[in-house]
Design brief:
Strands 3-2-1-4-6-5-7 form a 7-stranded mixed beta sheet, sandwiched between helices. It folds into 2 domains: 225 residues, Spore Coat Polysaccharide Biosynthesis Protein SpsA, Chain A, CATH 3.90.550; 73 residues. The chain is built from 10 helices and 7 strands. By secondary structure, it is an alpha/beta fold. α5 packs parallel to α8.
């Protein structure tokens, strides 16, 4: 199969028939073998009956229904698992993403050799309360991830089929798919300016909590990719540093008292009266706890079923 379109959705029953009709028109003109996978993320507005009627009308339309609302990342992950195309394109169901962008995105993957192409909604039709946090979020993500994209959260993206089969998207990590792909070795990541249309039906799912969660997820994914297989490198290093600082501080306090008593022959304050001594004890206790946490994390990591799962790109004579 040439192309898979994965559409995660939540309460978009009004826009679905229009979207599918436009997809059939645009992709039909390309002459490609394709499928449209609609992933219903626990809709409560009658989206599933609409999806059922669309699948009955055309076998190229397929539907996946969650038992409840899990979020966009699980919906995308399930769609990726089901996709059979050598190129996979994701888009939102609210008609703000333009199906007319599909041919150019497809050719960028097939002809230009990109692993992933992300849309950039340069001109947006969103309220200021959404666009300003998005700009700050994108700026921060660029600096942390090293992936120089303008719009990480754009739902319109194109992938080589191998990319979506090699990554796992969970939690709210859909914002960082380009970062995840880069960490998995897919480094040819491009960007294309795409049209953005005002929302016609329903209401936005964006809230301020998603903005906060986005930054927390960025910290999580950075930590997981760097220390997920070697947690002791983080906890052990920080724990050792804390313990050494605490030990040296305690030694300084005790040494200072002994110096006053046996060298200067002067009375010195009690060790237990000095605040630095308790700071030192606290640092040593925290250091030991972090070091122990590192050991436990290593045991958990060694027991994980994917501990020796790696993406093998090629084999010769094996």
């Amino acid at each position: 199969m040439d192309l898979s379109i994965v559409v995660p959705l939540l309460n978009e029953h009004e826009s679905l028939p229009i979207l599918v009709e436009r997809l059939h028109k645009v992709i039909g003109e390309l002459g490609l073998a394709y499928e449209v996978i609609l992933v219903d993320d626990g809709s409560t507005d009658g989206s599933w009956p609409v999806i059922r009627s669309l699948t009955e009308a055309d076998a190229r339309v397929k539907g996946i229904r969650f038992g409840r609302n899990y979020g966009k990342s699980p919906a995308l992950n399930e769609g990726f698992r089901a996709a059979q195309g050598r190129v996979v394109i994701t888009m939102d169901a609210d008609l703000q993403d333009d199906p007319d962008e599909i041919p150019a995105l497809y050719h960028m993957i097939v002809n230009d050799g990109f692993d992933l192409v992300s849309g950039w909604k340069k001109k947006r039709y969103d309220p200021l309360t959404k666009t300003l946090p998005t700009k700050l979020f994108n700026w921060t993500t660029r600096r942390v991830s090293g992936v120089m994209l303008h719009d990480f959260n754009c739902g319109l993206k194109a992938y080589r089929g191998e990319v979506v089969k090699s990554i796992e998207v969970f939690g709210e990590m859909h914002r960082y798919i380009p970062f995840i792909a880069k960490k998995e070795g897919f480094r040819k990541i491009g960007e294309k300016v795409v049209k953005h249309h005002p929302r016609q039906y329903g209401h936005t799912k964006f809230g301020f909590d998603r903005f906060i969660n986005g930054f927390l997820d960025l910290l999580t994914i950075t930590f997981v990719f760097r220390f997920g297989r070697k947690p002791m490198h983080f906890f052990g290093a920080v724990g050792t540093f804390m313990f050494v600082v605490g030990f040296l501080s305690a030694a300084w306090v005790v040494g200072e008292k002994l110096w006053h008593l046996y060298v200067l022959h002067q009375l010195a304050p009690k060790v237990s009266d000095q605040g630095l001594f308790f700071v030192a004890l606290t640092a040593m206790v925290i250091g030991v706890q972090l070091f122990t946490m590192g050991f436990v994390a290593e045991l958990v990591s060694r027991s994980a079923p994917e501990r020796n799962h790696y993406r093998v790109k090629e084999r010769l004579g094996v």
